[in-house]
Amino acid sequence: MRVALITGISGQDGSYLSEFLIARGYEVHGTISSTSRSTEPQPHAKSASPSEVILHPVDLTDGGNLTALLERIAPQEIYHLAAQSDVRLSFEIPVQTANAIVMGTLRVLEAIRSYQRRTGRAVRLYQASSSEIFGLPPETPQTETTPFHPRSPYACAKVFAYWQTVNYREAYGLFACNGILYNHESPRRGELYVTRKITRAAGRIKAGLQKKLFLGQLDSRRDWGFAGDYVECMWLMLQQETPRDLVIATGQTHSVRDFLDAAFGYLDLDWRESVEIDPGYFRPAEVGLLCGNAELARQVLGWSPKVDFQTLVQMMVENDWQLAREEALCLPSPTS
Ligand code: GDR
């Protein structure tokens, strides 16, 4: 039986990835942090059942801890997803963000190197890179050769993690690769990311549970895909003969306004009646437009996204409209 370890398994991607791997017969282990913040995406309670995933409370600030875990479970594949992944929050807690991403990734790489040296067993590593490393890109769409221009403490940390992964591959021959994933969403997305914040609010406004939705920059454009599609790439990248860094994207870009139109429109609502701008959500440096070209992933992995923008929005709105109706049913009636 193949054994996989997912760091940060309690997030959206860990949830879809663990389901994906279990369906392929893997024994799936996951690390969870006892210090994870409320801004992290939701636990995967609704997906892979806890009995099918073996969880290990591992502090990624303690490298020895991780090496001991590798020796115990002997994974062939490691998916390093753990991070502080909220871009806006990274401006408020840059040091913790760097600790989690920079040192967390380095510890994973070092743990693998020392484990391989001692046991002679090969391990493959997927490193969750991000389109945020392009920040203010000189070209659109971006490819694997587009220069990086990170625009947040989060993105700067991700640039370090990217190059450290490349460095371990080149210096020590590690099978390690970076998936440069553009924004990927789903009904399991954390509620502080803009898409889920919008679909949650649309459902609650429709159900009469909420009146206003406070947002920041509505002109930002992102290449939004479906997280369930993207975890397949993580796995495919580790099944190749040689490790490669790949851009994973849909090639379509939409603004936050477009997302509002689609989400509120699906429930016959006009978002202009509910949305107010709160400058508190503006970022000190904003990433205005990201759009990826995943042609190389298509050639190398034979992958292309299955879920388009409209379907993604519908999927999220339907889920959150249902949640809001359940929430409304649980509320005491005004007369009781
Ligand atoms: P992003 O995702 O920063 O692209 O990073 P997010 O959904 O947070 O923001 C997208 C855009 O929407 C604008 N925006 C708001 N964002 C949030 N969160 N809340 C708001 O109220 C709001 N109003 C407007 C933002 O300014 C931004 O321009 C995500 C994360 O998952 C990263 O971890 C990952 O690496 C990248 O995607 C790829």
Would you give an account of this structure?
The relative contact order is 0.13. The strands form four sheets. A seven-stranded parallel sheet has the order 3-2-1-4-5-6-11, with helices on both faces. A two-stranded parallel ribbon has the order 7-10. Strand 1, helix 1 and strand 2 form a beta-alpha-beta unit. About 4% of the residues have low confidence. The chain has 336 residues and is an alpha/beta fold. Helix 6 runs parallel beside helix 8. The chain folds into two domains: 208 residues, NAD(P)-binding Rossmann-like Domain (Rossmann fold), CATH 3.40.50.720; 107 residues, Alpha-Beta Complex (UDP-galactose 4-epimerase, domain 1), CATH 3.90.25. The radius of gyration is 20 Å and the shape is globular. The N and C termini lie far apart (56 Å). It has ten helices and 13 strands. Bound molecules: guanosine-5'-diphosphate-rhamnose (GDR). The site of guanosine-5'-diphosphate-rhamnose (GDR) has 23 residues, from helix 3 and helix 6.
Notable characteristics:
single chain, 336 residues, alpha/beta, Rossmann fold, UDP-galactose 4-epimerase, domain 1, 2 domains, 7-stranded parallel β-sheet, two-stranded parallel ribbon, 13 strands, binds guanosine-5'-diphosphate-rhamnose
